[in-house]
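Why does this matter for the project? Reviewers at the last site visit asked to see concrete outputs rather than summary tables. In response, this paragraph embeds two records directly. Each consists of the residue sequence and, immediately after it, the corresponding structure tokens. Nothing has been edited or filtered.
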Amino acid sequence: MNIAVILAGGSGTRMGSEVPKQFIDIYGKPLIVHTIEAFDINPKIDYIEVICKEDWQEDLMIWIRKYGLTKVKWIVDGGETRQESVYNGIKHLKGFCSEDDILVIHDAARPLISQRIIDENIASTEDFHAVDTVIESADTIIKSIDGEVIDAVPLRKELYLGQTPQSFKYGLIKEAHEEAIKQGVLSATDDCQLVLKLNKDVHLVKGDKLNFKVTTFEDLLLLKSIIKLGKLEVN
């Protein structure tokens, strides 16, 4: 069984909107709906779990009905941190998931995820138990500890930019989160970090530049332009 876990618990308003970015209207449809639809139409996804702040859950249920999102089975309260939100989702699935079921964990603010990325995440997780979606770095990365001077220039060929989904066998990601809590790690921003702390390998799945996270106003303008262009090409 393959379950998409959509993280929509953030309240960030970095782009200046009073509405969290995942709920901003994009051509008459909330951004999060664009994201959920990508998983809802994928034949390999069995169910969808959405992690969402309580204040937005009623709106989300209305949108699920309005847009016919048939695979959304659970809406779970978001936590104070990304780590807590993911763990809330994991705990909620206890008793429903087996150890070998797959969780495909994805940011709600990445609505342009392709079907290929979803398919390859599932296929690779079946083989390797833990995978991360990444793209190669097109730019040289500069390391600076104080933000004033360069401390190092790592080899670009060894560096990748992390995206989501990050996908795992249920038993593995549950163990990783529980061990992190025991060790006092409570605000990890990346689930792969927690799996690596168990000395388990995390394999790579090739991402896509279009699978960017909407964080700033410029990201929002780019998203609208891409969606508008896609509609024009279809017509």
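We now turn to the second protein, recorded in exactly the same manner.
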Amino acid sequence: MSLLSQSQSMRSRRGMTIAELSRMIGMAAQNLSTILQGKKDSRASTFESLAAAMDAEWVMVPKEKLAEVRQVLEGKGSGPDRTARSTLDYLLSQ
């Protein structure tokens, strides 16, 4: 998934308009739209600002870890069961 498509997807999930994002990062909406459509290159700092405005992080993932990261992002990855009671919770309830 490209950085552009990830940006568009995140914007959609956050329910943010291009106008709203452009105000937050201080860029004209038309310029931002052109960048997100892939019609114009942009600086890394623009994508860092976009990520911050959407309460996200822009990161690089080593290729050998990419499949695992994608699974986690899709909600299919393994990890700790956050709904399970901790040992401390269990002991305190005794």
